[in-house]
Amino acid sequence: MSDTGLSRFLGGSPAQVILRLVFLSFVVGIVLSALNLDPLDLVEMAVEFVQRLWNMGYHAIWRLGGYLLIGAIVVIPIWLLTRIVSMGRSR
User: Fold this and answer.
1) Rounded-to-integer distance, Cα 35 and Cα 40, Å
2) pTM for this one?
3) Which residues have a Cβ under 8 Å from the Cβ of 22 and sit 6 or more positions away?
4) Distance from C-alpha of 73 to C-alpha of 75, rounded to nearest angstrom
5) Is 67:60 a contact under the CB 8 Å cutoff?
6) pLDDT tens profile 25-38
7) If you ran DSSP here, which 8-state letter would residue 1 be given?
8) Which residues touch 13 (CB under 8 Å, ≥6 apart)?
């Protein structure tokens, strides 16, 4: 891979990109430390979130379907009414 191809892939020269990544890593490290968050804790929280979703199973799907139905009962008539009113204006 040519140097211009590598630069194009990285979004700048390799040295600039490495320097930028080091700086951003330092800033993010300070912010996470100030929030008392450990990167491994973040990974663990994400895994637990997926596990909770998996354990909810079909109950979560039925619940989402219920929300969809309740929303559609309100949204569809309003949409239909606005379409009918806009058709009347265009004539």
Assistant:
1) 14
2) 0.45
3) none
4) 6
5) no
6) 999 989 988 988 88
7) -
8) 7
